[in-house]
Structures are given as C-alpha cells and as structure tokens.
Amino acid sequence: MNRSKSDRRTRITVLVALAANLVIAVAKGVGGLLSGSPALLSEAAHSVADSVNEVFLLAALRRSRRPPDAHHPFGYGKERYFWSLLAAVGIFVVGGCFSFFQGFEALGRDEQESPEGYTVGLIVLGVAFLAEGGSLVRALLQLRGEKGAAHDPALRTVIAEDSTAVLGVLLAMAGMVLHLVTGDVVWEASASLGIGLLLVYVAFRLGRDARDRLIGESAEPELRRGVEELLASQAEIDNVAALFTMGLGLDSVLVAARIDLAPGIDSEEVERVAVRIKRSIARTWPEAEHVFLDITNAPPRGGV
Q: Which residues of the chain have pLDDT under 70?
C-alpha cells in the first residue's frame, strides 16, 4: 500500500478517535460533576488529553508529507515523531497529573455520594467503553491490514490511547461500584491513582520511542544486513569498512557506506560502479532514498 493511501486511512482512524473522545469528554465531565466521582473526572481529563493529542497527530500527518526544501533537504518525515512526543507530554500532564490530583483529593473526602448520580456516571462509562472499544477495533484492523503500519507513530499513539482508555474506563467503573457497595471512597481514589499510573506509563513509552526516532535511530536490522551483503558481493569492492543507516521517516532511510575498492580500477570505472551500486540498493530497498558511498581504492596487494 502506498504511503498517501495509508496516510488517508490513518487520518480517518485519528478523526474517528477524535470525534469519539470529544463526545466522551463532555459526557464524562458532566457525569463527573453531577456525581462528584473522582474516577469519572479523571476519565474526563483522560479524554480531553486524548482529544488534544489527536489534533497533534492530524498536524503530524499533514506536515510530515511536505517535500524536501533548502532548509530540510532530507524532508519532514521526522515531524511525525515530534508531534507524537508532544502527544506523550499531553497524556502525562493533562491526563496523568490530573488523575493523581483527583485520587489524592478524594482521599480527604468524608461525604457520601448519591446512588442516583453514580448511576448516571456508570451509564456514561458504559457508553464510553463502547465508543473507545469501537475506535480501538478500527485502529487494530488497520494495523493488521497494512504492512509497516506498526511503525507509524500516529497509529501507534491512537492504539495506545484507545487501549488505555478502555482499561481506564474499566478501572473507573470498578472503583465507582466498590465505592457504592462498601461506602469507602478509597476504592474510587485508588481507581483514579491507577488511571494516573496507567497514563504516565503510556506517556513514558510513547515519549521514549519518539525521542529515539528524533535523535536518530538506525534502520531495521534486515535492511542493514541486506545492504551490507549486497556491497560485499560486488566484485569491485574489496572491503566494506563502515556502514551507517538512519531512519528519516516512515518510508525514508539514509544509507552511508565507506568502501574500499579492489586495486586497479580507474576513475571512470569507479563512477560507474558507484552508480550501479546505488541503483541496486534503491531498487531492492525503495525506502533507501538517500545513499552515499565514500569510496577509496585499496592499496595493491603486497605493495606499500
């Protein structure tokens, strides 16, 4: 599947998740205020964070497809990882920190909550579970149906958010039910703290992945091994002194190799060999958009 078609599907997946989260955030917020439930208010903050993050992901999808220019000769593919990093920060600050605040604040409460308000809250959470679950199923189907989709930070973020949202809803429902049954707010406070821990963990994983890609991560081991084997198999190459790769985006890789040519090759032949090797690499691995060869002539065997 070509990148533009894959991006269209990912954009639809993100829009579905955004629409679901906006509606759910309002419903959770109203339900949380009516019931006074800290777990439900934590889930409302969670949905708000997810909504903001999906706006970031839409920006990433649009900006990362810009063509190279004088200021960015290798293109804008890493924009996806920058916006994914912002999304991770949003999950941590808006979702995780607010959930911790709600959990600790609830531990100091003495008042009993009304069963009627909690009934509304549980209904809201039930609807949220169905909506988040539907969004998650769509994202997982895209992940399963597209080759290379697992490396798309936008899709990975949506799956992480929706998975966390489903688990968060279950935690909130369990906390509310146990609070009503036992009359002890510690259950619901624990649910809020659990949601906070879950969000912090997801934010850490997404942020770490985005950081690695922004710093500069090598290409997949299969590509690196394949390029090294291709270079070593060329009759004109005496030795592959060094090979460097770096991902520049979802479907863009930089390959740089330092190679020693066999002795006795003249300058015109060196140029032809270099062009042939670059074409072979690009034909075998289309994602290797930038190939650089640092060529040196090996000294004659037995010479000085």
A: 1-4, 109-117, 147-150, 297-304
